[in-house]
Design brief:
The chain is mostly beta strands. Helix content is 8%, strand content 47%. The strands form two sheets. Strands 1, 2, 3, 4, 5, 6, 9, 10, 11, 13, 14, 17 and 18 form a 13-stranded mixed sheet that branches. A five-stranded antiparallel sheet has the order 8-7-12-16-15, with no helix packed on it. Strand 2 and strand 3 form a beta hairpin.
């Protein structure tokens, strides 16, 4: 996994690719009592980071509700142990660790959120003998993201209100640790917006998208994508894989039984590198769902052996790009 990201599963990456929405406002309920267990500003930041809407929904983005059909595309021929019919990733536990660093000047703080996401991948498949079986592969994914906080006060009585989250990085997730000989790593994600603007990310945990008021801060990038229902968005992903067989990449987005999507991305280029790894590019155009809220567009890369070979290890890499539908 790239750059020690701690799903979506985010984390992001990142996370049913799959996507859960949530409603965000500028403040939340006013209370004269701090959250349970919060006794100082650092603990307040950690509590808010762990409960942030984007942090909360990254593993939901990358998880599935059921084993789904592969009606989003075909995978071509391969000499493997099974032919998958349906598959789904199911999360059973999430362990979250938040580390806070206050920047020089005491006005900006960075909360580093690391999640260990455990669960199982289930594949309903047909064997070479024609039998239908359900394969189960346990997994532990590691997801990392940063949340930026802005100081808005210095009060002692209501210290837990002195900081507010204003921006988030992408979430970078994947198999922890990557299996030797069959690892893959997303290295770049591009999001082409209807405005003509492009979000290009090569370092997900250090690329920030603002979702509350904030003047440009050191390391700041762009505002969170604000999308309208029906907008056409184009996504492109670049990855490096040790597998000689082309990998499977899906985009996860939407929410609920009628808007949730897991869509097969098309490979548009492949180059074999001198070290016998492969650089591959995948692309997809998709239309924004008619459901308002804050979400992740989860790019979920999976080795072919993960789904097609019952003896191959589970190996994935995923990033989650936050966006809002208004």
């Amino acid at each position: 996994m790239k750059k020690s990201l701690a799903m979506l599963w985010g984390l992001p990456v990142v996370a049913g690719m799959l996507i859960a929405g949530c409603t965000k406002d500028s403040g939340g309920p006013v209370t004269d009592a701090p959250p349970a267990g919060v006794t100082n500003e650092t603990e307040a930041i950690q509590s808010m980071a762990a409960s942030d809407e984007f942090v909360q929904n990254e593993e939901v983005t990358m998880a599935d509700q059921d084993m789904e059909t592969m009606d989003y595309g075909t995978f071509g021929k391969i000499d493997a142990a099974v032919t998958p019919l349906r598959w789904g990733r199911f999360v059973t536990s999430v362990t979250t660790t938040v580390t806070t660093t206050v920047q020089t000047g005491d006005t900006i703080a960075i909360a580093n959120v690391v999640k260990l996401i455990a669960g199982s991948l289930k594949v309903r498949a047909v064997t070479g003998a024609g039998d239908t079986v359900t394969l189960t592969k346990p997994f532990t994914d590691r997801a990392v993201r940063n949340v930026i906080f802005k100081r808005v006060g210095f009060g002692l009585e209501r210290f837990w209100k002195n900081w507010v989250p204003v921006a988030t990085s992408l979430v970078d997730g994947g198999t922890n640790p990557p299996p030797a000989g069959s690892s893959l790593d997303i290295t770049k994600v591009e999001m082409f917006l209807p405005t003509g603007d492009t979000i290009t990310v090569t370092d997900p945990v250090n690329y920030y998208l603002r979702y509350r008021w904030l003047k440009l801060f050191a390391g700041g990038r762009k505002d969170l994508p604000e999308l309208a229902a029906g907008d056409r968005i184009r996504m492109r992903v670049t990855l490096v894989s040790e597998s000689p067989d082309s990998d499977i990449v899906v985009l996860r987005y939407g929410v609920g039984p009628f808007h949730r999507r897991r869509v097969h991305m098309t490979m548009i280029s492949e180059v074999q590198n001198p070290n016998n790894t492969f650089t591959r590019e995948y692309e997809l155009a998709w239309f924004v769902h008619f459901h308002r809220g804050f979400f992740h567009a989860g790019v979920d890369a999976i080795t072919r052996g993960t789904l097609f070979d019952d003896a191959a290890p589970y190996s994935v890499s995923w990033w989650g790009v936050p966006y809002r539908v208004y």
